[in-house]
Structure formats: C-alpha cells, structure tokens
Amino acid sequence: MYQTRTDKTTDETDTFPSFDADDDISRVQANREPQFTLSKCLDAVMVMGNSHLVMTRNNKLAIIASHCQESHFLYPFKLWKSGDGHGDDNPSTSGDGKYELLSVANDIMAEEIKILMSRTEVKGNQTDTLLAGSLAKALCCILFIKMLTGQEIKSRILVIKAADDCALQYMNFMNVIFAAQKQSILIDACVLDSDSGLLQQACDITGGLYLMIPQKIALAQYLLWVFLPDSDQRSQLVLPPPVHVDYRAACFCHRNLIEIGYVCSVCLSIFCNFSPICTTCETAFKIPLPQMVKAKKKKLKPST
Amino acid sequence: MHLIADLSCPAMAALSEEVLLVVKRVRQRKQDGTLYLMAERIAWGPEGKDRFTVSHLYADIRQKISPDGKAKIQLQLVLHTGESTNFHFSNESTALRDRDAAKDLLQQLLPKFKKRANKELEEKNRMLQEDPVLFQLYKDLVVSQVISAEEFWANRLSLNNVDHSASNNKQEVGISAAFLADIRPQTDGCNGLRYNLTSDIIESIFRTYPAVKQKYAENVPHNLTEKEFWTRFFQSHYFHRDRISTGLQDIFSECAKQDEKGLRSMVVQGVKNPLVDLLSLEDKTLDEGYGSNSMAPSTSSANKTVKENSNSAIIKRFNHHSAMVLAAGNIGLSPRGPAVKIQEAIEYEDLHMENGKKTVALNLKKSDRYSHGPVPLLPQQYTTSQDIINSVNCIQQEIANYKPCLTQVMSSSTASSAIAALSPGGLLMQAGSQQAINQMVPSDVQGELKHLYTAAGELLRHFWSCFPVNTPFLEEKVVKMKSNLERFQMTKLRPFQEKIQRQYLSTNLTGHLEDMFQMAYNKFHAWQTRQMLRKT
User: Locate the BSD domain: which residues (chain B) (predicted)?
Assistant: First the structure.
C-alpha cells in the first residue's frame, strides 16, 4: 500500500495557475483504482500544465508539490535559480518536435519530483501534508510574478488533493484563503478521495470551483474540462454547480460543529453548553433566573 | 375677551375649564338655551338643564359659517366629520352683536387648534406616502377591517413624533448683519427705485425688529396691502440713514421711538459676557480730586456740534442694529452665566487628562483553541506506521523510474465517460437542475407573498405583545387579536393558497405562515385553558 502525501500546487497567471497537488495516491490505489498511481497523476498534471501554456503565449505556470516535510517547486525551478534565459545547458529536446517550452517544462517537472522523492525520509507517523504552506508559497510566487512584470495579471490556484484535511493547519489555511481573496486570486479544488471542508470554504470564499472526482483515471479530462478555462470564460460555460458549504463553527470544548451555541462576550469563544465561567478567559457570567412565583399566603380561618 | 361666567348657573360650577364667552338665548334645533365658549371647546346647553347637549372641541371644527343678510341670525359650525350644527341667536336686541362676538372669538381660537389636529393627520399622511410598505400594510389591515386604525397607529405615531421633533430642532438659519444693505435698490427707469424683497429678507427684518413685525400684523391685511406696507417702510425715514424725526404721521415713527428706548435699556443692562465687556478693562482709577469730584463724562448730545450729532446718530443706529441681529440670533439659547463662559473659553476637552472608563484586561488562558480547526465529520482511516513506511518506499521506487508518457494518459472511453458525467444531466451536474425557488415563482406571486408576510407579521406582533396577560384590557385584546388572525387567515391566506395551487406551483410557499399561525393558536388555547382552570 502506497502512501504519499504530495501536494501539487499550480499557479496560473495571466493567468498564472499554480497547481497544488496533494496525493494520497496509495490509499486510493488500494481501495478502488489500482491503475492510478502517482505517475499517472503527474502525467495528468503535466497535460494540464502544457495545455495551459499553450492557450495563450502570456500564460505562465508554476507547480508546487506539497509533501509531508516541505513544499517544493516542481516547475519553474531551475529557471529562476539561475536567471531567465538559462535555456540550453542541457538541451532537452524530446525529439518529437514538441514546442520546446513544453518539453523543457515536462523534463524539469519529472526531474524535480524524482529529486523530491529520493530525498524523502521515511517516517511512520507523518501523514499530513503542508498544504497551507504550499498555498502560501503559491501566493508568494504569484505576487513575485506580479512585481516582475509590473502588470496586473489574473491568477488562480488549483489544488489537487488526495489527503485528508489537517486540523492543525486550520488557522494558516484560513489566513491563506483570506489573503487570496484580498488579492482576487481564485482557489480551485480538485479532490480525489474524500470531501474537504476547508477547500470547499476556500473555493466558496475566493470564487473558485470545487470538484470531487468520481473516476480518478480520468483526472486529466476533468482538469481540462473544468479547470482549464479562466474565470471570465467560466461564466459562459455550463460547469458543475457549487456545492453547499458547511460554514458551521466548531465548539471550543469538543471541536464539534454546532449550529446553535453559547458565545462568550469577552473573548468570543464558542461553547456548545452553557457554563458559568468561560474556560478561555475565565470571566464569570450570571444568568437571570426565572422569577419565582410567590406562594399565596393562606388566610387562617378563625376556628369556630 | 373674558366675561365673567354666570356662576349661578349650576353647569358652570361643575366646569373646570375657563369660560371665555357666554351667550344667552341661543336656539339650537328649535330649543332655547345658552352657548358657552370655553378654552378648548364650544358647548350649548338647553335652558333650565344643567348639562350640555352639544359640545365640540375646537380641534374638531373645520369651519364656521355665519351667513349675513339672512332673516335669522345664525352661526353654523362644520366639523371635520362632516356634520354641522346650527346656532340661532334669538335675542332680539343683541342677536347680531352676540353672534359677531362669538364669531370673532371663534376666529381667534380656531386657528390655534386647527394646526394641532391637522398636524397629526398630516403626519400620518406623510408617513403613509413616504413608506410604500407601510401604506400597503395599512391597506391590508385597516381598510379591510382586520384591525382598527388606532391600534395601527398606536406604536408608530409615538416613535415618529420623537423623530420629527428631533428633526425640527435642526439649526435655524442665522441672520446676516447686512441683510438690509443687501436689498440693493435698482433704478426703475423713471425716477423710481425697485427693491427686491425675498421672503428671507422679510423674515430677517421681522426677527431683528419685532416692532416692525407688530406693525405688520396690525396693518396688514386690514389697512394696507403687503406691497403698500413695504413701500411705506422703505419710504419712511425709519429705514433711511439719517433718522430725522420729521413729525409726519408715519407708522414707523413709533418704531423709531421704540428703538431708542430699546437701545437705552440695552446700554443700561450692560454687557453680560465678561469676555467681551470692554468697559471692565478700563483702569478703575480715582479721577482728579481723588474721588471727591463727582463729574462723570457726559455723553449727552447737548454739547456736541451738529456733525457730531449726526455721527453719533448713525453710530447709535449701527450699534442698535447689530445688537438686534445678535439678539434675534440668540433667541432660544439659554443664557449662560459668566463663570460658564470663562470656563468654556479657557478649557479644551481634548487636552484634559484621560479619564476613560476602567477596562478589564483580556486574559486568555487557552488561546490555541482559536487556531484549531473543526474535527472532520468523517472518521479518518487508520493506517499503521508500517503501512505508511511500506507505501512510501513503494512510491519512491516508482517515481525513481518515472518517465512521463503523455500520449497515454487515459483511454478514450474513460475520457468520454468523464465528459458524460460533466455534461448537463450527468453525474456531477445534478445539483444544478434544482432551480432557485425565486426563479420558479412569478414575481407578482412573490410580491403578494411579501405583503402577506408583512401583514401577518404585524398581526402576530400585536398578538404576541399581549402576553403575559396581566390586565383585562390585554385579555380583551388577546381574544380580539386571535379572531383577527383567524379572519386574516380566512380572507387572505386561503385564497392565496388556492390561487397558487391553481397555477400548479408545487412549492409550499405558505407553510411557514401556517406554522406561525398555528403557534399563535396553540398559545392562545393554552392560555385559555389555564384561565378556565384558574377560575374553577
């Protein structure tokens, strides 16, 4: 049974998409689709990336793999490290007449993922990926490109996710989402295994698309159909409708999602049951008791 | 005019109102009696009886008609409601005089009360016009007799009166000191001057010179027209720079004398504000003679030259004018003592020490609770660490041999099944076929539903505000409201439901309304049973 947690984030800009792919391929593989491996997923991502670069000359692409210990830029990596126009130290023409940008991109991606996987230390207890960190890196990348070109470019982030939500990254995640919203960067999500409440919220808040895929081997098709068009074109297309997002808050005592609860007016912490002292800020509260009905005084009848 | 009431009449003794006029021998509906005009109403009582048969508040009277030239000397009162009452003055000798006296008194009193009554109606009309929702609610509830007009206005008028009075306290426009000079006269071609008077200027004149206002009230429209009045005003020497009392019969010569008096009294009063009182800044020395010479410097005009006299006249007028402008602007401001004024001049609020309210510091013991996300709803699968290690190793091996093979990413059948799932009607597009309810229901139905909700909300509010039922008035009201609710349901809600059923709208638009009504009925029944238990 394989288990990887690799997230891939791709930024797409003018559009600058960044893919964030978080794969929990192994579990998926064991459960349902034996043919779907990380390699297949990478292939699909590559197809998507190539298609995006081909759509318009101005499109830029970045791919980030989100792993348990780090988030790593799969593309573009070497280009930036050594300045633009690095080009032909290793002429990597694939020999099939492909557009050189695409072949270079593919080669870089493959190389980087190999490097990433080879240096992974195997630890038996880590199963969460650094998704929030990858998203933050994607945002920084977008900002960097914006500063480089000096123009306003439309960007979006596509997250391909196989792992489960990590509750520890909640705060960072929400911060990233709001930062993206402020910068008008859409966050799209393509979820492979189980629904992710955090990503649903992210898509809802920033205006992106959320999709859970029934067939993982057709990942490329879903990506091309749903996530390739940019936000302007999406309004003209018939795409999967938005899902209902569960925005309920979680109570501080049990971390259960509640609909009606008690909120401390001092520290705004949420509880599912009333308690006279708020456990977060130690403020004491009084509740007005219902008025006691006074018992009627019975008049003593004079004994005759 | 106040006439002493005839206290021997028993009806008078019972009154606590001030009686302004009594007229004997007034017939009403062919009955002899006495007419009484009091502070707030007019009343008539038949002869020999000690109570009033007819009594109308001045506020209710719309018009009084006193036809002249008829054989009978009558006074007719028309009320707002449309009914009219006729008083026939039958005292042969004094009938005309009596009637005229009553008429004059009414003429003076009616305007005062008229404004009050109209104001309320005006207020109501204004509210209904401004707020279409309110108007619709009014139509739904009051016009169709579901609740009475008083109940409808009970809560609303009081609220709005407060607002209105607040808005009436907006700042008054001040008077420009140059308002008289701003009326620049233009030559009229042939030796005449044209003065352009706007209502603002007129108002300024009235506010600054109350004497002129009084003259205006006295003379217009009885003796002079407005135009004539103002022509005289501008012609009079009162207006002109050099006020030489010509001795002519000028209606404004009185004003000039009043102004002199006013100025003198102002000088006597002195300046109240210690900050602008220049006289108090003078040195207080003992004059020549160490105080034994009591000779105050004289400012009387006897010792001055003619030129000095005219100069002092202009300066006096100037001072007087300025003082009047200031006084007119300060009407309504409460006079403040000198200590307060000095205090205000030397202190700035911003520079005071901060003595804000005492606040309690926020003391968070477990602040990491905020950063922890909610527990995921679905249970996570449990994997052993050995599994994890194994899988990571597998993947590492796989990737080490990875070569992208982009021409064989997927088969065409998988692609087409994916496309099918994404096409309209496919697996992933199910939720979209559910149209929003507001796109399925026509907008007029929606509008009607909104009106129903507003009206039902109003009724329910009246109903629920009766609880807890403490007074017999509330008991009555609760019963009445319950019957109102039933009536509303019958007359408005049911037809609406039938209408939408006829239009084949399967959605349940009125379910919530029905629930609300049912809740109200349940509460009413519970209360009723409790009442009956208490009684038995």
Answer: 109-164, 189-241
Integer Cα distance of A256 and A258 in angstroms: 6
Taking only the tens place, the pLDDT of each residue in A67-99 is 777 777 877 765 444 444 444 445 555 567 788
Query: From CA B409, how far away is CA A221, in angstroms rounded?
Result: 9
Strand arrangement, sheet containing B84-89: B54-57, B41-46, B31-38, B19-28, B84-89, B74-79, B61-65
CB distance A238–B367 less than 8 Å? no
| CA A147 distance to own-chain centroid | 24
- Substitution target in B362, B411, B419, B422 with the highest count of A β-carbons within 10 Å is B422
Residues of A in contact with B393 (CB under 8 A): 122
- Type of residue found at A218: A
Contact A255 B375 (CB under 8 A): yes
Structure tokens at B6: 């005839």
User: Can you list the residues of chain B whose pLDDT is less than 50?
Assistant: 1-15, 162, 165-166, 245-248, 301
Query: Which residue in chain A has the smallest CA separation from B399?
Result: A114
* Angstrom distances, CA of residue A243 to CA of A30, A189, A229, B432: 28, 12, 19, 10
Residue B454 exposed, middle or buried by CB count within 10 Å (0-12, 13-18, 19+): middle
B510 alpha-carbon distance from chain centroid: 38
Q: pLDDT at position A121, please?
A: 74
Beta bridge partners of B36: B22, B43
Interchain pair A221, B415: CB under 8 A: yes
Interface predicted TM-score (ipTM): 0.73
pLDDT tens-digit readout, A218-246: 889 999 999 998 888 888 988 888 888 88
pLDDT of A24 > 80? The answer is no
Nearest-by-Cβ selection for B374 from A42, A164, A255: A255
Task: Identify the DSSP state of A277.
Answer: B
Q: Write out pLDDT tens, residues B458-494.
A: 889 888 988 888 888 888 888 888 888 888 888 888 8
